[in-house]
Amino acid sequence: MSMQKAVDNSRSSNAGLSMDNQEKLLADALQNVRQHAFAMKRVLDQQSVMEGLKHAANMLGELRTSLLSPKNYYELHVVVVEELHHLELYLTDEFEHGRGSHDLYEVVQYAGNIVPRLYLLITIGHVYIRANELPRREVLRDLVEMCRGVQHPLRGLFLRNYLLQCVKSLLPDTEEENQEATKTGTILDSLDFILLNFSEMNKLWVRMQYQGHTRDLQRREQERRELRILVGTNLVRLSELECVNVERYKTIVLPKIMEQVVSCRDSIAQEYLMECIIQVFPDEYHLNTLNEFLKACRELSASVNIRNILISLIDRLTAYSTRDGSQQNIPENIQLFDIFSEQIAEVVKSRINMPPEDIVALQSALLNLSLKCYRDQFEYGNKVLENTRKIFDNIALDTQVQTGTPAAKELVKMLKIPIDCYDILDVLKLNHYKLVLQLLSYRERHTVCMYIINSILDKETIIPTAEQVTQLFELLLTLIIDQTDSALETSRQTITNEDFVEEQNLVARLYNNFQAPNDPDQQYHIIKICQDTFKNGGLERMRFTYPPIIMQAYALTFRYKNIREQDEKWEKKCQKLFQLCNQLINTLTKLETNDLPLRLYLQGALAASEIGSENAETIAYEFFSQVHDNEKVLACLKKATKLTTQIMDQSVQVQLYNELLNTYIYFFNQNLPDIDITLLNSLIEKLQNEMSKISSNENDEFIRNQIQKTFDYLRQQSQLEKFQGLQINN
């Protein structure tokens, strides 16, 4: 049974057909097409045009099927059109050699079935127009009207697409209305043709949504998306017409397209077609029809994702306005920011159920436009940030956006835009940036703050004033001090956590960008602000943030020394800096490790000695005297003794006891309280007892020799009054 008979006898949907059945139906249809195509070519070679048309009609009859899926119908259509091309070439050749028949266009109108009839009419009409056998204007109008006879969505879409492809090079694209244009047509005829074809194709495309059972809705929507390019091709053709200028686009093309888009009330069609309009027509056209386009956006179905449409338009015009590094592409009479700002506000107002993340995404696109198109007009960026804050305040007053939500992610993206567009000094001019940052929960704020610091370091931006440093710290407080909403993170804020260490190292590196190269007093104010800010961060942060302050303060003393002839107060300023450093280092001594404060004290003593001020010797002595912490020394020695007793290896343990004894002897000589002869005798006795347990191999002999040297030293010292009572066995 042929495919067309199967169609006549069956009204069933292809929804119930399995993949295997689809493949079999397609294979059968393709086989029939090839058979009829072979017969058509054979009779055409014999100069039998009428027989050729008959076989062509039979071949085209396979396109009447309703059983194939859109994907398989497309494959069938491609093969049929390819075979039909042979007929077109044959007829063209006949006319070129003066053998063409002049009544074929009339003859094929008597074909029995409408689908084959229209394909043949389009093919022959195409040939006749090129051969000047029929007036172009009349044939084009005739064809586009007759295609209304096919109302099946799938068959109608592919038929009209074939029509559009055939007449692509035949559409009139001239302005003049003269005697010749009466036959060939003008640009207005082309616009009527394409706009009518577009309107009918869109109706067919939308109708697919409502054919079949509701359980197949998702499948039908997917099939529709696969066919969308067929409808969009009409808009591409419109954009390719040279005589479509801005005025004609504004008065004829866009209103007709928008009328169809808005009236169809189908979200899939509206989303695709609006996006298609944005992409296929020139930027100048969009600039001159912004209000019309945005007004239509407000009239779209409530289920349309308006966010993507508006963002796409904003991004395209933003890119256009900054093309070639210029910001002069936007005409002065077009207030781009104001238009978008007002229209977006209207869209948000009209869609009360718009998700917060969509609102933020729109504001982000608007912020991107304001920063790139109006780079020096910070009030535009501030206005966007202010509106964003107001929107969330109206949604939930004094409530942070929940971490991990789509809205939080969009806010993070939004806050990264100024960082990418500007250096931090310009970002600080956006007064409402901080207020939007405060909407975020701890983790998202942490992400943005890290992004800010990395940007400053990558761009090597110098922050030259204390005021700007203060403003920057207001943005970065999440990394500088404990946050009330970071309870779960507080336990991770220790030196054993790699992320915390990396974070604080970045904060420490940031300090190197705080430079007032020509103003030492400004640099001093920066140091004081850093101290006042970092002192609230806790000891775990201070081990990272204090050393850069201290080293910068030491460096500043040298700068004051270099200008001593211009600044009579330079010595007092240096003294204040050294006092500040002493205070900061003293705080660091509370850490478990003492090597960092020690190195900083020594560096301070060295700096004080090199400055050569009147009280340099006193300052240097003060730094040196700060290693002296008797309680900490004794605590360290006791801890070392305890650890030594836990060593399992006898030889290692004895060696450590010997080193421990030598350390105690050193501090005994330094008159450290609580270390007396009794304590030394206890360690000597312990060492002698443990030494008797080790073997006599070569390695242990080395240890014995080292211990013996310690005992020989003690025997010599026992003659002194300080070491009276020392007990060493022979």
From TrEMBL:
Q: Which residues form the signal peptide?
A: none
Fetch the InterPro entries from UniProt: Vps35, Vps35_C
Keyword Hydrolase on entry: no
Instruction: Write out the annotated subcellular location.
Output: Membrane
Q: Under the cellular component aspect of Gene Ontology, which terms does the record hold?
A: cytosol; late endosome; retromer, cargo-selective complex
**What does this protein's UniProt record list under function?**
Plays a role in vesicular protein sorting.
User: Which protein are we looking at?
Assistant: Vacuolar protein sorting-associated protein 35
Q: What is the species listed in this Swiss-Prot or TrEMBL entry? A: Rotaria sordida
| UniProt lineage | Eukaryota, Metazoa, Spiralia, Gnathifera, Rotifera
